[in-house]
């Protein structure tokens, strides 16, 4: 089905470029300072205010978590906070979902350009949006609330909170329409609307927003949490301005971005010029699609500038996995922050000045309206992040000191499992399980990746306790555990991933609705570097008519898929179905890629991994070339013989199975 262009949709395609210099937009007068004021900030004042601005983003995070009712926010930290200057340049982002912090500036710029005159931007206002072409978030479930802060009738800065909402309409529960062809199957995007006017929540706008959701009370509570977090931030910022004066605080904001730019440019000049390339893949754009879709990037480092050229990326597809330009940026910024900028202020407004992006509109990670984008955040944006991670790691690996910040690709996909239906209290529910937030981190050049360490784009990402999920939703875990051989083998092993296995439990309807959308089943998506192997692929299994309940009634807990009986089916990337009382769902998500040839790993480390359940006996022998004694100790002579045999087989000079 070809995508039919929608006339007028180009109005919502925010470019991400800075606004033209101006001190006024419509009736809105901007508070600005000159370069002399920035240069005149004394070092002590700068550090005090800088750390206070960082603390305010943390305060916003704590506020939204305390007011939200969503496990996705309260227990998993799938949200973002930020402070932007008067024109939207991002001064500071919180340590939460950094993908979400990559497009806050875009949203502010669009709002300034299109809302300053009508309906106007005034003190006490807050704007809501979930339009990824405008910015703010990466797909429609990422809902942003922007709040302008005025001082003495001038627009001083903006604060923002963005969080994943569990359902905002569309064909399927949770808004993940796995059979969707375009955006009209999904939750429809909302460009910036004035949700709060003069400090008062507008009931007409709130009704319009909540009416689309299957869980309006929960989404409404999250709306108030975001508004409240912005209020907390603005109270703190107002107190800061009262203490130090508006010009001093603004000068510090500008200096934070300028310093981040200067520090990154200085670091880049220490690295060699060159071009590094990578390709990331996705299997399946929607239910029934068996194609492989690719994202190509060539990163060029020239002096103090990075250019990411995505020429060669596949055209946007009929399905749900495309992402907008905001998602493309969301695939770049987290890698820059974690690998290149761990020792400097996380001020995207300055860091992105060192970056040029080449991308053709109409491609899978820079799609045009009305392409389907419902899963873009954890598909094309995520795959972009994987490819960018490879190139930045290769660049850093050329430097003896900076290479210590490099990692191979972390958990290559986000395994999406969504449950919906009637909960144990007789109320409707929908939730995205965030267990796969505990993906394996990629190996480093001097150490193993962290097992189930999280996602590199969400430094403070977490998974909810098993008990929290079971208390909140009609489900019962059989297990949740790390999985053997899931981390990418290498001289340094990638962190292992894990699995969850659960049954429906205590729902009055005796069944729950399941939406599965998990890529990385045909092609490994967490590759290694420098000869390291990729992490294991994604694996999901649905067992119909299992004997799990009977075993539990007898006091036995099943320990493996083979213990469950019934009919086990390995699932495709996308599926929507129901789980009956006797059904079991198993999902095994990815670890991180390895670094270096696994035949160079010390045998003692391999033996320790086998003892700890990170590597199997078979993996130790066939992949690492390590022979273990019955006592679990490496037989060094046999190991050296086997490794020489494996090397000859690689070179094509010896055939035969490994004995």
Structure explained in plain terms:
This protein is α+β, with helices and mostly antiparallel strands and 659 residues long. Helix content is 29%, strand content 20%. The protein has helices at residues 35-39, 43-67, 71-74, 104-120, 203-210, 216-244, 246-269, 325-340, 348-351, 380-396, 466-472, 548-553, 603-612, 617-622, 636-650, and strands spanning 24-25, 28-29, 79-85, 90-93, 126-129, 142-151, 154-164, 193-197, 200-201, 274-283, 292-302, 305-309, 355-358, 416-422, 428-433, 475-482, 498-504, 512-517, 539-544, 567-570, 574-579, 584-588. It has a 7-stranded antiparallel sheet, sandwiched between helices. A hairpin with a 4-residue loop joins strand 3 (79-85) and strand 4. The N and C termini lie far apart (52 Å).
**How far is the N terminus from the C terminus?**
52 Å
Residue share in β-strands: 15-25%
Tertiary shape: globular
Q: Going across the biggest sheet, name each strand in turn.
A: 4-3-7-6-5-8-9
Enumerate how many helices there are, as a single number. 15
Main beta sheet strand tally, sense and closure: 7 strands, antiparallel
What fraction, in percent, of the residue positions are helical?
Answer: 25-40%
Q: What gyration radius follows from the Cα positions, in whole Å?
A: 25 Å
Class derived from helix and strand content: alpha+beta
Q: Mean pLDDT score, rounded?
A: 95
Unreliable parts: none
The tally of strands reads 22
């Amino acid at each position: 089905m070809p995508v039919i262009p929608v006339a007028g949709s180009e109005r919502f395609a925010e470019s991400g470029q800075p606004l033209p210099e101006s001190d006024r937009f419509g009736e809105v007068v901007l508070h600005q300072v000159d370069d002399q004021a920035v240069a005149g900030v004394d070092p002590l004042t700068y550090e005090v205010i800088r750390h206070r601005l960082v603390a305010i983003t943390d305060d916003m995070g704590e506020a939204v978590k305390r007011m939200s009712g969503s496990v996705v926010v309260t227990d998993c930290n799938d949200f973002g906070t930020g402070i932007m200057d008067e024109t939207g340049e991002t001064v500071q982002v919180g340590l939460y979902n950094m993908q979400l912090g990559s497009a806050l500036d875009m949203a502010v710029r669009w709002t300034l350009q299109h809302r300053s005159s009508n309906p106007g931007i005034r003190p006490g206002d807050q704007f809501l949006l979930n339009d990824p072409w405008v910015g703010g978030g990466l797909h429609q479930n990422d809902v942003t609330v922007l709040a302008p802060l005025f001082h003495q009738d001038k627009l001083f800065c903006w604060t923002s909170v963005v969080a994943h909402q569990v359902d905002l309409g569309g064909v399927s529960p949770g808004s993940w329409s796995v059979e969707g062809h375009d955006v009209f199957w999904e939750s429809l995007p909302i460009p910036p609307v004035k949700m709060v006017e003069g400090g008062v929540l507008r009931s007409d706008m709130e009704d319009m927003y909540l009416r689309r959701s299957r869980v309006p009370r929960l989404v409404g509570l999250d709306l108030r949490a975001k508004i409240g977090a912005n209020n907390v931030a603005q109270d703190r910022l107002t107190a800061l301005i009262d203490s130090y004066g508006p010009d001093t605080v603004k000068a510090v904001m500008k200096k934070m971005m300028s310093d981040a730019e200067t520090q990154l440019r200085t670091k880049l000049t220490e690295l060699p010029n060159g071009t590094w390339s990578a390709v990331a893949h996705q299997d399946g754009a929607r239910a029934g699609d068996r194609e492989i879709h690719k994202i190509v990037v060539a990163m060029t480092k020239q002096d103090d500038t990075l250019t990411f050229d995505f020429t060669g990326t596949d055209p946007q597809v009929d399905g749900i996995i495309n992402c907008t330009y905001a998602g493309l940026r969301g695939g770049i910024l987290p890698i820059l922050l974690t690998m290149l900028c761990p020792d400097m202020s996380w001020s995207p407004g300055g860091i992105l000045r060192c970056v040029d992006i080449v991308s053709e509109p109409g491609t899978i990670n820079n799609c045009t309206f009305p392409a389907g984008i419902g899963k873009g955040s954890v598909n094309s944006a995520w795959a972009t992040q994987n490819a960018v991670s490879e190139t930045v790691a290769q660049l850093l690996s050329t430097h003896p000191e900076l290479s210590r910040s490099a990692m191979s690709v972390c958990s290559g996909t986000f395994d999406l499992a969504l449950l919906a239906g009637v909960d144990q209290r007789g109320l409707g529910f929908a939730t995205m399980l965030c267990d796969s937030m505990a993906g394996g981190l990629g190996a480093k050049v001097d150490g193993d990746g962290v097992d189930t360490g999280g996602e590199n784009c969400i430094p403070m990402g977490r998974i909810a306790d098993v008990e929290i999920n079971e208390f909140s939703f009609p489900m019962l875990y059989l297990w949740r555990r790390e999985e053997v051989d899931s981390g990418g083998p290498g001289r340094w092993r990638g962190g292992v991933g894990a699995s969850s296995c659960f049954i429906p439990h205590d729902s009055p309807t005796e069944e729950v609705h399941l939406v599965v959308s998990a890529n990385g089943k045909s092609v490994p998506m967490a590759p290694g570097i420098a000869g390291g192997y990729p992490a294991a692929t994604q694996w999901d299994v649905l067992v119909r008519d299992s004997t799990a309940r009977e075993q539990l009634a007898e006091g036995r807990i099943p320990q493996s898929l083979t213990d469950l009986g019934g009919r086990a089916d390995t699932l495709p990337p996308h599926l929507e179905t129901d789980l009956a009382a006797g059904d079991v769902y198993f999902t095994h998500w990815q670890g991180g890629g390895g670094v270096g040839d696994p035949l160079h790993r010390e045998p003692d480390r391999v033996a320790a991994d086998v003892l700890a359940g990170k590597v199997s006996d078979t993996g130790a022998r066939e992949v690492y070339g390590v022979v273990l004694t019955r006592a679990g100790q490496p037989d060094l002579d046999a190991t050296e013989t086997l490794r020489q045999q494996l090397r000859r087989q690689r070179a094509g000079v010896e055939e035969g199975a490994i004995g």
